[in-house]
Design a protein that fits this description.
233 residues, elongated, homodimer, DNA-binding
DNA sequence: CAGTGGTCTAGACCACGGT
DNA sequence: CCGTGGTCTAGACCACTGG
């Protein structure tokens, strides 16, 4: 008789099964926590935990007094894993190679960059161009701008041995990231570095990071043709 | 004296602040739950909830006996919102227009598609080509394959008024999604539909969905040049 | 083995927000 | 108003895993 202790995962799975198999179609209001707790023979807190998880995952929407409603759109969210370039390349079995192509002298950020990073007028930035390769095959071109107002010590780093991303990770924490994905045509320099035809379609990531509101860096990563990025829910 | 009740969010924010301001650098082992509960003057469950949230967000790693360790890499994952095309277009103020360009007769899935959707040999699929537009401006070309083994009723839908995505959402639930992002060159047909030069760089999403292991559909979405997708952490 | 997180319970109070 | 979810508490047992 003494049924094993009911866990919140069991409740979660059972509720999810009922949603998936159509027992509770979209827009259904689920029974309240007390009622479900009675049905499952557990405490209300256990049901609460299970429903919290369903809510986090986006399966249901919870509102006080209104109750818990099954969402129509099953999942409009995905988790994106953002691997380190080094790991991604080494995972294919190839050797990771980094090359600093160019290092611009510090200068005032141009208007588009100030807008992008919310920089003040006249803010100084350091611009870099780098190539990441898998063995002898070019993999990704990185254009990088580092805000010297937030990261003054970048001015004295040479970035010859270590890429700016790995250097920054060890040097400066950040609190906010802003990611943009797009497709861009390979311009002359990028085409040359990536060894592809000018105008080739390149998967492009732009990543801005901030530290408590202060801009840290903008990275523009253009991947060699054929690159794919996958996301798992 | 009687301090206001301590909430798990307060604990969470305080712990996060200590991690961010360097009080607890990477690889630090945080004090145990009991100890923190004593410090904050709350129940252990409250601290537990706060640390669970930190763990979910990727700031710390928790292991039994070992304790709670501050993660080195702040966060290597982002949440990606996947808006409905209709919503995305209407959010810009433009009118959403959908057009069915072509509807292929049902046929056996070619090898690459079988591999992609884990379909059995000889499985029948329905192929569609659609155009989504923002007002008079083409926005996205959709190539869609629907597995007739899993969704036989698709054979009798005409998809003239309603796009396959909206139709499927109302018709078939799904349990798993697989997303791939890339950049592709505009082929002849896509270039014509999107009114861009052949070879133009197009941001491309491929989305496979399954229902308990059975393939439902593969959508290949090619967006007009200039499209950007953003992710928030 | 022993310490740490993982979880359940039973009860309680509270805040929000439909009715 | 008052029902529903949100959260806290104090105590307990358990499971995993590092030493």
């Amino acid at each position: 008789m003494t049924a094993a202790r009911v866990t919140w995962r069991q409740v979660h799975d059972e509720l999810l099964a009922r949603i998936r198999n159509g027992h509770w179609p979209a827009d259904t209001i689920l029974p309240g926590e007390v009622e479900l707790a009675a049905e499952f023979g557990c405490a209300r807190a256990t049901v609460n935990r299970a429903m919290q998880a369903l809510s986090d995952a986006g399966y249901v929407e919870r509102k006080r007094k209104a109750g818990t409603r099954v969402r129509a759109a099953p999942r409009r969210q995905a988790r994106l894993a953002i691997p380190l370039i080094r790991d991604e390349i080494e995972a294919t079995g190839a050797a990771y190679r980094y090359t600093l192509i160019q290092r611009d002298p510090p200068r005032a950020a141009p208007g588009w960059l100030r807008a992008r990073l919310r920089l003040a007028d006249g803010a100084q930035v350091l611009g870099l161009t780098c190539l990441h390769a898998a063995g002898s095959r070019p993999f990704m071109v990185e254009h990088r701008w580092i805000s010297l107002g937030t990261v003054p010590q970048a001015a004295s780093a040479d970035f010859v041995q270590t890429g700016p991303n790995e250097w920054l990770v060890g040097e400066v924490p950040f609190t906010d990231i802003d990611l943009t994905f797009s497709a861009t045509a390979a311009a002359g320099e990028a085409a040359e570095l990536l060894d592809c035809a000018p105008g080739a379609a390149l998967f492009t990531i732009e990543r801005c990071t901030w530290l408590e509101g202060d801009a840290v860096t903008l990275a523009r990563l253009q991947f060699a043709p054929g690159y794919q990025m996958t996301a798992a829910p």
